[in-house]
Amino acid sequence: MTSFLALIGRDLRLAVRQGSDAALVLAFFVLAVLLFPFGVGPSPEILARIATGVLWATALLSALLSLDRLFMADYEDGSLEQIALSPLPLELAVLAKVGAHWLATGLPLTLLAPVLALMLHLPEEGLPVLMLALALGTPVMSLVGAIGAALTLGARRGAALLPLLVLPLYIPVLIFGVAAVEAAVQALPATPHLLILAGLLLAAVALAPWAAAAALRQALA
To answer: What pLDDT is recorded for position 18?
Structure first.
C-alpha cells in the first residue's frame, strides 16, 4: 500500500509541475462547450435540451487528450521498466497511475461541469446527478483508456490510433450518463442508470488493470 500511494503521489507531483496536460483537458472542455451557444443559438430552451449530451460528449473527448501520455513519459525515460521490476505488482501500478490521472483530469472535469451546465441552462435538478454520474463515469474512461494507452505504447501513430480503440468502449458510459441526468431533469428515478454506471466502474476496476498490465509487459518485452 505504501508503494501504491507513493506512485500516486509521484504522478500527481509530476502533473502539478508540468500542468500542461491537465490545463489542456480543462481548456478544451470549456472551449468546446462554449462553442455550442454560438452554433445553435442562444435560446435557453434549445440549450437546455442539448446541455446534457453536450457536456457528456465534450467531457468524453476531453478525457482522450491526455491518455496517450499516461505511460509514454515513463516508457521514454525508462521509469516504466523500473516500475515493472519493483515489488509492487504491475496491475496495482497501473491502477495507481490511473488513479493519479483521474485526480489530475477527471476530477477537475467533474467539478467544472456544473458551472458549464448552468451556462447551458440545464435545470438545477440535474446538477447533483450530473456530478455523481461524472464521478462514476470519468474513472471508467481513465481505466478503459489505460488499456488503449498500453496497447498503443511505442506504436507508430499511437496517438491517432488510441481514440479509435477506446471511443467505442466509451459509448455505454455516455448512454447511461446522459440517461441519468435526463431522468433527474424529468423528475424520474435516476438510480437505475447510476447503478449501471457503478457496475461499469466496478467491472473496469477489476478488469482494466490486468489487461493494461498485460499490454505493458508485451511492450516492455
So the answer is: 72
How many residues make up the chain in this entry? 221
Confidence at residue 158, expressed as pLDDT on a 0 to 100 scale: 63
- Once rounded to an integer, what is the mean pLDDT over residues 79-91? 86
The structure's pTM equals 0.90
Give CA–CA dist 221/218, Å, rounded. 5
